[in-house]
Structure of Xylulose kinase:
Amino acid sequence: MFIGLDLGTSGVRALLVDEAGTAINSAEAALTVAHPYPGWSEQNPADWVAAAMTALRQLCEDTPEEMARLRGIGLSGHMHGATLLDQSGEVLRPCLLWNDTRSHDQAQRFDALPGMRQISGNIVFPGFTAPKVAWVAENEPEMFAKLAKVLLPKDYLSYWLTGRMVSDMSDSAGTSWLDVGARAWSPELLAATGMRVDQMPELVEGSDVIGSMRPDLAADLGLPEGVQVVAGGGDNAASACGVGALSEGDGFVSLGTSGVLLAARDGFAPRAESAVHTFCHAIPGAWYQMGVILAATDSLNWLSRIVGARPAELTAELGDTIAGPGNLRFLPYLSGERTPHNDSAVRGAFVGLDIASTRTDLTRAVVEGVSFALRDNLEALRLTGADLSRVLAIGGGARSRYWIEVLATVLNMPVDLPEQGDFGAALGAARLAICGVTGAAPSDVMTKPPVAETILPRADLRAAYDDAYAAFAASYPTLKAMQ
Ligand SMILES: Nc1ncnc2c1ncn2[C@@H]1O[C@H](COP(=O)(O)OP(=O)(O)O)[C@@H](O)[C@H]1O
Ligand SMILES: O=C(CO)[C@@H](O)[C@H](O)COP(=O)(O)O
């Protein structure tokens, strides 16, 4: 038995699978995000541990016989977060998350450094790790003085599980400190940003075993001794393992807190100026590219808080089938934007509110606005040479068929919906654990999921959605000029 432990922004998910990777059971524990000031986004690592314990205990309670045969745990987690530890491994301050944009100035400064984009393969976005640590150095010097190690969020969980501070290539690629082509920490980038290599965790591939579960923790959970912990990957690379997106032409769209359009690549072919991310895959010798928007289901969650209805209730009001775009437009820049605009200062807007606008109109505008922003990502991805002709949809938002039909039509490509079950980051993490512990080849373990339904672009409505996308794209410069 193996577990994929996924630290999502909205919660921890533990997926128990058998040796063949078939799901046996799963458990979840919710997390919240603190936004104490505009642009700030933080979580407490202690909350990740508590949520992981809750999910693991649940699996032990529900499926004791299977958990007694547990052999390995693979990790996955939201990327880029700066988890700062002192010399004794204590957490210094809450983790600055991937959608925290307070380090705008530091990011701009680092992005202009010679060699930065060439070596890291990416723009230095404010959400990436290096500028966030520089923000701490400049604004909380007493914390920075105590900084002994920087861990990514999932790597804090593997530290808690094993006592070892290790990271994998796919997550480390999002720090701005990795030579992404060479898969090694870059001494030049570390020195240029005021950091030392001893402040970085040891680097391994995502399918490498990093150690055994601490005996005290195993005893506390009632698990066998010697459960192996496998490094795993950043959540998008792990999701790619979960859906079998391993080589050129494979891809997915993810509607989670963030929105992601990802294309697997056989080689390292960055084009940083497109604002597309080029990162190491979680399996050795492979890379991927993706466009990222900062608020996909987070936009829906925001609306849900404002109107007092659950996200699923809101999308249920839209029905299952689209009938053309609405007149109301939503620009989903509630936390700023990454691809293609790299604009952490811009904020969202509704355009065209009417005295008759209803809550359903607002939901439809949100669903469409997120889909148009993902079309922006597709256009940016095409500039890099990564082309996709169909994608698989994952993430909580993919539970809305309406949303997926909008996406298929706006992206003008078939979107596959996997059969019910888990085919995202948690499965990818479990598959990395299987490879690490058994030595199986990723291509044998990381197969594509069975497709329950393929949603085709609606030819009769394409022109209408294309016009609405053009209006959406034209709104950004005006919105920017107004702020
Ligand atoms: N039926 C639904 N329609 C649209 N969105 C949904 C639905 N059910 C859940 N969601 C959204 O999915 C989100 C969780 O998605 P998930 O992929 O787990 O996010 P993350 O990995 O960022 O934690 C919830 O916050 C919620 O907004
Ligand atoms: O910042 C990125 C990728 O660059 C995000 O995709 C995070 O990795 C968070 O993911 P979710 O919680 O939305 O899955």
Observations:
- The chain has a mean pLDDT of 97.
- Residues 8-11, 256-257, 297, 300-301, 311-312, 315, 395-397, 399-400 surround adenosine-5'-diphosphate (ligand 1) (CB under 6 Å).
- Residues 248 and 266 are 6 Å apart (CA to CA).
